[in-house]
Every structure is written in C-alpha cells, then in structure tokens.
Design a protein that fits this description.
OB fold (Dihydrolipoamide Acetyltransferase, E2P), alpha+beta, 20 strands, Rossmann fold, six-stranded mixed beta sheet
Length: 370
Amino acid sequence: MTALGAPAPAAQAGASSAGHLVVTGTSKRFGAAVVLEDLSLSVAKGEFVSLLGPSGCGKTTLLRCIAGLLRPDAGRITVAGQDITALPAHRRNVGVVFQNYALFPHLTVAENIGFGLRAQGVSRAEAAPRVAEALALVRMGEHADKPVTSLSGGQQQRVAVARALVVRPSLLLLDEPFSALDRKLRETMQVELKHLLREVGITAIFVTHDQEEALVVSDRIAVMNSGRIEQLADPATLYGRPVSLYVLDFVGQSTRLAGRIVAVEDGVVTVETSLGPVRAPGRFAPGSRVAVAVRPEAVTLGEGVAGANRVSARVSEISFLGSRTQLHLDLPAEGEDRGVVELPRLPEGVQPGSRVTLAFREADTMVFPA
C-alpha cells in the first residue's frame, strides 16, 4: 500500500475482524416514507463494494448516513472498529467524491487537492509533498497550477478523487462520480478508478444505478430494493445466480418465460411455458406459478447439446452490437414474457421474421417464484 492510501493512525485503532465498515440494523425515514429499513452491511478492509439500484431505492441515503451527512433513525455504523454513528462528518475520516465533484472554481488543481489538508491544519511544508504524491497518483502533475475550470470532465473527476485520497481517509465514498461523463470516457475512468483504488488499498463504497458500471468496478455488489439489500455477492454470482426476479431483471438481460410447474423429479422441474416445456434445477410444488429465465449468451440456435432445452420462436428484431449480435424474439404480448439471444455472429439466413430453434442447457436455466 502506498503512503497516500494509508489511513490516519486514529482510524486504525480497534479494527473489527467482522469488517472494516459495518452497518447494523440501520433505518431512515423522511416523514412517512421509509428509505432504509433495518439494513445491515459488512465491508472488508480494501474491498470495493457498489450499491446498485434504481432511483429511490435508498443507496444515496445509505451513503450519506455513512458519510455523516444524514443521521440514521436507528442502527449503528462502525469504521475500523470505531462507532461513528453520532460523529459529525468532519470527524469521521471518510473521503467523499460527489456526483458533481464539488471542486472550487477559483482554486488551482493543486489548491483544490490540498484544501482538505489545510482544513486539518496540516502545515504547508507537510502538505506540499502529499499533494504532489496525489497529483502523480492520478497522473495530473502537469496540470497542478491550472484552474480546474480549464479541465475536461475526466480530469476534474481525477482531481476530485485525489482530493478525497490526500487526507488519507479510512473509507472512500463515491456517489455516481461518472454520471456526467460521456460513455467512452466513463468506461475508461471505471477501469482507471478500479486500478487506482486497488493500488492504494483503500476500502471504497460506490453508488451507481448503472449495472454495467457496477459489474466492471466492484469486488462485490449490493443490489438494493426499497431500502433493503436484495442480494450482496461478487459480480459473477450476482449475474449467474440471482436470488430473485428483481435482481435478475436489474442486472443484465435474459429470456424470461412465465409458466406453471407440471412435473418434479430429482431436483429438476418441468415448466410449461408459452413456447413449450422447459426443464430447470429447482424445488417447487406441482402447479406452482413460476418464471424461468436464461441469460442471452447461454442460448444457441439449433439443436444444441444432448438433453438441452429446445423451444421455437420467431425473430422480431436484430441488433448489431459490434462484437456480438442480439436477436429479439416475438413472444405473446400479454404477460411479462420476453426473449433475447446474444450471438458472436449472425447465422446466415437469419433475419426478422425467421423462425429459429433455441437451445440452452438445463443447468443454465433459472426458475423463480412468479
């Protein structure tokens, strides 16, 4: 770990083996609206965890409670073993990168980065090398004396991160820091941020509503729903084995078919759907209403492997996405059925209106209560 990433000594005392950041039974209301409800979360030291969910799910409220910008109505928050629930924001040793960066337009890049050090009473002699180190870390050394208003969006984002890291926080919080950037720059900055935080070894909480962004940057992702964590897992588990239809729909695309259990045998269920019978691992009572789903890249055209599920559908639209092609399927309009297949290349002769056979393994098929 670099010196810049090392937390201040006070923040190291009493570290908890349960997690570097521990949120326990935290609730928050605004009037009659429950924004956080008995939420608990544990984040290991050096871990990068994203809070993912739609607007209004409580992710930013949770971030603000951790930062000390809001006081929870119930629960406890500890960082490195220290209870910070009632501490004011300026005494928490928590760095925050805001959505709009909150840079000071009348200050230079170096002055913006050093602002927090001056607020801590760090001498000019001690602050100068720490600011230089932060500038080098985000590759902005040549811009030190420029006004921040002359920088691009990506450069301003780097300054905001450097300003948060230079005070050596015990925890870094990032509130949708890429939302103002164009797609190409956003993708570049995601990779750069992940590399930077891994280099300094800092614990970070990242708020986003962008599923792809969360999958790229995170060690683990907490999918939030109505003030609760619906699932907390690493990206591969979250995508491959979602615990609910909510997580399935929010993280990635899928072919999803409503149906009814018509047979159960040795931990495998048969579901009658609008496209025919589909088998999947699961334990449901016969007659149960369920939904079966399969990720688009797990579907092939043709007969597939022996024992695979096979259904037939008509192609409604074809989307060329560069390295892959998506086929959208024409399914019954009623209900929530939808179909999407993702292929490395489009087979010859397949076009809108073509009827195709879809094959996918039972092991790749998921089933959820309807």
